[in-house]
Amino acid sequence: MSSPDVLTPEEAADIRSRLDEVAGRTAAAAEASGRSADEVSILLATKTQPAEKIRVAIEHGFDLIGENKVQELVAKAEDLADLPHEAHLIGPLQKNKVNHTLRHAQCIQSVDNLELAEKIANRLDVLDSTIDVFVQVNTSREDSKSGVAPEDAEALVESVRRLDRLRLRGLMTIGLPGSTPEEIRPSYADLRELSARLRESGVLPEEATELSMGMSSDFELAIAEGATMVRIGSSVFGARDYT
Ligand SMILES: *Cc1c(COP(=O)(O)O)cnc(C)c1O
């Protein structure tokens, strides 16, 4: 994952100014929805980005990092081991990669089935440890997407709660890919309503208030719908190079 190129001072300055801009827009959106800026955290979605760029961001005070692939999570954890930060897995997790993930992630946002949750809990029993998790919900109602179906979310949340090793922080969703912000907005509203309903009925613990939703193209709308954590990639790091 680590690129051989060292960033130029201009490239590093560019990342810092983009971070400041995103933080300013996040704070403004939080205040517009009657919340304070510190009620919405910014998680950097760092897939495909080299550790050098992530290092600049962490040193600038943005220490919440989200990776999609376990392989990238592991590689960059080693590159960034000297810098305190919190790593979240925000992509699909195969059961055979749970061990690697638990070694390097402080939070798994993509828990979307009970088998996976139990596998994580069993491994944590061996390690005598715990981890933060989000239940990922497929609010876009697309067959191909990861996330538990909204109608099955209640049962999954109930089961996850029974696993003492997992600390449930809230719900996560990804909007429809490639659609306009206004098309995505209802799926963010759905997640907020689901969270409110499950907390009211006592299914979701009182403290599991997190709503992880919103990306570069729509994070202000997500905040308007109640996001407590937005996941930002390209607005900070530019377009991704998948080659
Ligand atoms: C890539 C990614 C993001 C961020 O996307 P951008 O549009 O680059 O901000 C957020 N969440 C998840 C799950 C992602 O994979």
TrEMBL record:
Pyridoxal 5'-phosphate (PLP)-binding protein, which is involved in PLP homeostasis. Signal peptide: none annotated. Belongs to the pyridoxal phosphate-binding protein YggS/PROSC family. The modification N6-(pyridoxal phosphate)lysine is found at K47. Transmembrane segments: none annotated. Residues 52-240 form the Alanine racemase N-terminal domain. It comes from the Bacteria. Keywords: Pyridoxal phosphate. This is Pyridoxal phosphate homeostasis protein. It comes from Brevibacterium metallidurans.
